[in-house]
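RECORD TYPE: inverse folding
INPUT: structure tokens
STRUCTURE:
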């Protein structure tokens, strides 16, 4: 058993493609977060290494982001702007995210490790001043990693 706090950079975001009656619309958002996970991990011997399974909370802070919107509609002008983090009407996304992490992986005795993870966002990332009609935006992140531990 181990406790694994950490600090990592996480890329989050979304892409929406809509097409109706010959008109197409694409909205793509890429976000960068600094994340602090606090995971409890159980290690179980298996073959030439060990299986590990873990879970714990995380908190992340929005650093930067870009949004690009395109459409083939004649009256629509394409947009490529920085995302504004904050909680006012002028902001795009709330600056803080938090949720739960889950991980499953295998570490060889040589130190090579393989890991799959899932981050379940619990925070509503719509800025506080824009929340109406139960509108919610929550992050859900699937990750795969290969690493080396020494």
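DESIGNED SEQUENCE:
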């Amino acid at each position: 058993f181990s406790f694994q706090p950490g600090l990592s950079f996480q890329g989050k975001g979304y892409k929406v493609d809509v097409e109706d009656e010959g008109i197409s619309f694409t909205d793509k958002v890429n976000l960068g977060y600094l994340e602090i996970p606090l995971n409890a991990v159980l290690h179980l011997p298996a073959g030439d290494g060990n299986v590990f399974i873990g879970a714990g909370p995380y908190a992340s802070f929005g650093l930067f982001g870009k949004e690009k919107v395109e459409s083939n509609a004649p009256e629509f002008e394409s947009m490529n702007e920085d995302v504004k983090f904050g909680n006012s009407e002028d902001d795009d996304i709330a600056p803080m995210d938090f949720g739960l992490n889950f991980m499953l992986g295998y570490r060889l005795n040589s130190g090579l490790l393989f890991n799959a993870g899932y981050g379940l966002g619990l925070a509503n990332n719509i800025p506080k001043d824009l929340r109406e009609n139960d509108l919610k935006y929550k992050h859900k992140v699937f990750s795969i990693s290969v690493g080396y531990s020494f």
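NOTES: The chain has a mean pLDDT of 91.
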